[in-house]
Amino acid sequence: MAISRVLTGVRPTHEDGQHLGHYVGALRGWLNYQSQLNTECFFLVADIQALTTHADQPQMIRESVKGVVKDWLAVGLNPNLANVNFVLQSQVKDRAELSLLLSMIAPWGELARNPTIKEELDKMKSKGSSETVGFMTYPVDQAADIYMISPPNEQGNEILVPVGADQLPHLEFAREIARRFNRAYDVNLFRPCEGRTTDVGRLSGTDGQGKMSKSQGNAIMLSDSAEIVKAKIMGMYTDPNRHRSTDPGTVENNPLFEYFDAFAPDHEEVDEYKRKYRLGQIGDVYLKQRLADIINNMLDPIRERYIENQNAPVGDYLLAGTARASEICSEVVAYAREAMYLGFPE
Ligand code: TRP
Question: For the segment 233-258, what is each residue's pLDDT rounded down to a tens digit?
């Protein structure tokens, strides 16, 4: 039976404590993959990629590796399942070689035009830091993250890469790298990876001003207490033109309903709220209380798992998943070397 593989990654940098936006945009989808037993999942902590922006904070990165894994455990990702691997990027040694080999056929011109790179570059420059070679080429390195688990003897099996929309240029690039490699060496080694974005997309912040982000102060963190969640929701932005609960309200682009859509298990209940809101028959306060309950119910088991996993063997989990990725990667690299005629002459 064909198995498929899923790989995705995050950069361990503390700025990225996990919030509801990450939950709906990424983690919830990863949980779905994990529950498909014929899908082998690789969740990568990209500590080398974190150095592309935080080379001056190596200890912070090491600390964040632990934080990322604890967030994963809290949402219910389970490295004890046979099909789930937590991988530490820097410890798959052959991955670095794959990255170097891929860089030989990776088109520079496309890297230079990559919109995500451009955006990140602008941000770095506005902070006064200058780009490194490692930063400029990280999409190549990210392609190596993906193809390191490209099963060489199982052609036809695809690698799905669930990511946010900002990562799609990197995946398009990785697909091009696979095609170029196969064409250049007349092999069928890499099957172009398949990006998967979630349909929810970006979740708005509680202030209704752009997407949820810890640094904007408009985020509900997965580790927030029930009281804090309630306070944040009671203070959240809704329809600014509605002054009393008998005013007809607007549902579209109203974060209150965006959250109901994202988190309420019962869609009929939400449809009823929307109908009444438009007619001015239901109050914001009532709805916010209800929403706070729904989100707190969802977060309760996550909070419990944060506590349960306080002393979880994070290092052991990473070690096991990294060993699995390394095993596949060394095979992939052997094939790539052969395709490129690297080796001692007879
Ligand atoms: N660049 C991704 C991000 O910033 C993280 C990442 C690293 C990744 N390696 C990956 C994502 C491989 C998908 C596949 O979010």
Answer: 999 999 999 988 899 999 999 999 99
pLDDT of 303 strictly over 90: yes
* Residue 178 near residue 339, CB atoms below 8 Å: no
Angle at 269 between CA 263 and CA 271, to 5 degrees: 95
The protein residue whose alpha carbon is closest to atom 10 in ligand 1 is 9
Give the distance (Å) from ligand 1 centre to CA of residue 78.
Answer: 20
Query: Which atom, in ligand 1's list, is nearest to the CA of 138?
Result: 1
Atom of ligand 1 nearest to the CA of 7: 14
Please report which confidence band the pLDDT of residue 136 belongs to, taking 50, 70 and 90 as the band edges.
very high
Number of the ligand 1 atom closest to the C-alpha atom of 46 = 7
Which tokens sit at 26?
Answer: 């990424």
Q: pLDDT band for position 16 (50/70/90)?
A: low
Crossing angle of helices 58-75/284-308, nearest 10°?
110
> Is residue 265 pLDDT above 60, yes or no?
yes
In the sheet that holds 84-88, the strands lie side by side as 84-88, 39-45, 4-10, 159-162, 194-196
Count the Cβ atoms, other than its own, within 10 Å of residue 136: 16
Pocket of ligand 1 (CB under 6 A): 7-11, 44, 46, 49, 142, 145-146, 161, 163, 167
Residues 213/219, Cβ–Cβ less than 8 Å = yes
What is the distance in A from the centroid of ligand 1 to the CA of 159?
A: 14
- Quote the radius of gyration of the chain (alpha carbons, Å): 22
Q: 3-class SS at 223? A: coil
Please give the structure tokens belonging to residue 208: 């209704």
Mean of the pLDDT values across residues 59-76?
95
Band (158; pLDDT cuts 50, 70, 90): confident
As separate numbers, helices (DSSP H) first and strands (DSSP E) second, the chain gives 15, 5
